[in-house]
Amino acid sequence: MSTGFFTDERCFWHGGGNYVLTAPAGGLVQPGGGLPENPETKRRLRNLIEVTGLAQVMESRSAAEATREDLLRVHPASYLDTFKAASDAGGGELGLRTPFGRGGYEIAALSAGLTKAAIFDVLSGQVQNSYALSRPPGHHALPDWPNGFCLFNNIAIGIRAAQAAGLVRRVAVVDWDVHHGNGTEAIFWTDPEVLTISLHQEWNYPLDTGAANARGEGKGHGFNINLPLPPGTGHASYLETLERIVLPALRRFAPELIVVACGYDASAFDPLGRMVATTETFRQMTRAMMRAADELCGGRLVLVHEGGYSEMHVPFCGHAVLEELTGSAIRAPDPLGAALEARQPGAEWQAHLSAYIDRLAAYFL
Ligand code: ZN
Question: Does the annotation mark 235 as catalytic?
Answer without folding.
Answer: no
